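Cont'd.
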Amino acid sequence: MLHFSELIVENFGPYKGTQEIDFTSKNGVTIIWGNNGLGKTTLLNVFRYALFGRVQGRGNKSHSLKQIANWESYDEGKYGFKVTLKMYNDGVRYDLIRQFTVKEGVSQPEKDNDYKEDIFLKKEGTILSQDERKHVLNSIMPEQVSRFFLFDGELLQEYEDLLSEESSIGIKIKDAIERILGVPVLTNGLADITTAEKEFSARLSKVAQKNNDTQLLGNLLGDKQSELKKHEEELETLKTTLEELNVEKANLEEEMKQTDKARELLNEKRIQEDIKSRKKEALSSKKAEIKMLTKNAWQGMLNNRIKLALEKLEEEINVYEEKKTKHAVSEQIIDQIHKACEQGECPICEQEISESLRQTLKSKTKADIGFEGLSDEEKNKLIQLQGRRSQLRQLNVDELKQQVTSIEDSISDITVEISDAEQRLSDINKSLNKLGDTSRAETVSGDYAKCLEKINNTKNGIDSATDIITKVTGEIKNLEDKLKKQATDDELIKAEEIRDLSGKIKQIFENGVDLYRERLKQKVEEDASDIFTKISNQTEYTNLTINEHYGLSIVHETGRIVEIRSAGYEHIVALSLIGALHKNAPLQGPIIMDSPFGRLDPDHKRKITSALPSLAEQVILLVYSGEIDEQLARRTLGGDLINEYILTSISAFNTQITKV
Amino acid sequence: MLEDKVNIGLTLESTRIAEKLEETGNFEDKLTIAKFALAYAIKNNLDTNLTEDKIGDIGGTKWNIGSVDTDQYLRNVIISLYPEVKTPYRAIEILMNKGLTSIGEIIDNEGIGKISDYM
């Protein structure tokens, strides 16, 4: 079992000068308190650097080592940094020293290349060779499983990906889980015995080819074995390609996450540009429409005046026409009287007209009747007025004001929409400028789609190669069976026996791997459920259930699976899994957690704090004050709390580690 | 008796206002704007003294009456509404400039606003 006893850090990140943390040789929990920006994550990176020679930023991004050196020390001419990690593994003492110092001849280092890195691993005080060092470090803490020992609370969310078959992060985590559980020991054994079985099968075909009776079968078997080898090589190549593509996919997913904001902004920019362009087209069409209207709109503006003028004209015309009508009527009456006088009888009542009445009527018709006709001047005037009236009537066209108003309103609305889009675009551009180079954000989605297509094609290739291999393996089996029936000489019989034996051993290994995996999963499921029920507040959640990929789902007391779970519960499930893995792993070591309580409520924080000693023998907790209640943590952990340190800011680039 | 005009035009001030209206993008050209101004003047009773009015120097945009009134529609408007006018194109020029001057006063005081507000 691995146990960290002391960490000495020198000019690493905000840790100026030489500072140390004594974890002692006791098992239990060490809490390091530190507010944001004081170097909690850097401390996690100190361990990572000591063990693996790299540091990791937010989002799994690796940092340039030169940037890690303490700035104040750098300004004082002290370049580089050094980390010493003292530890015990199965009772053997190791001192691991890794330092980044300036190369000879470089007066002021500017880049990583101006530095050199030295690594020393002392075993009981004796420096080990490079090969021994690599072997020991890889045995006590392989980097592939480091996520279960050194983890950032923010990354616990990734464990949800284990529930998804397609997630490349899930595949990576599953691989790491199998490593920590020791599955590769068996799978490597299975690979070795498979190779041996193939060799014995090849030997069998060669022996058969030597004998005249079995030569034909031996040749056929040899051909099929070559064919199988070719397809297996092809399958291996495809599997390697798939692994590489999955790594590429995971990196692209990470890039997508990192460029999430930029991609969102670029997408919004495209939408706004599209809106702007469509609105400008609409504006241009409305402007063309209004131009068409205003071309003749002026004519409609005259309608009121034309109406007034027509009314006035009608009045004038009426006067003349009335006079003209009255005169015509009076002329007609006089004409009638004249006729009656001449005929001596009234044409209406047919009564006789007496002489005296005829004289009276004649004298009346000769007098002025007061209904004179139009003079020539008046007649001309009337014709003029009628002409004007006809012309004015022709000038009366439709008013366009309503249509112009409607288009102007539309133009006003569209202009506001364009202005809104422009304002939004300006804001987007400002945000994009703040993000710096966004060229990758524009291409990463396309690269991701291409990568998915390649993965799909490779999977199809693997499926068809697997089908062919199954078919050829069957054919080989048939040939081997036939050969068995025809075998007479001792050498062939012995070769067959060895081939059979290797096949049986392989079968045992295959079954063993499956069984071991299955049992491990059951054990992990049981232990994770045990931890989960201890730290979960929801009593209706009875246990966890594990899937093929070690993904854990919450089971409700009704037996139903809780499909949607909160971010807080995601953390609780992830912590349960990590605890279960530590319980079942052949490799045992400390857990160093950075801010694991972020999304949890106080009760869950308390329960998890209380469960910490059961997760691993040594737990180092990096938390900010307030993330958990200090007094409550002390009370909850009791004797299991063996050390407390506090990070104090001396300046922005100088943090002091002090024992509480 | 005054002879009618063969070319009509805008004063410098009227041309300035016509240019402002043209910038709104709502009119095809200055001639459309001038006709719009003429209608505005008639509508708003700025049509007094159409024969005597002095409108100042025609130092701005000018047109031949053939291009201003290809179908003599404008002339018919004037002679139908103002039978006393014997020089319709002179009246047209006066009305165009009066209309633009009046619109210009509004623009200078209140901004250009909507075209429909002038209709």
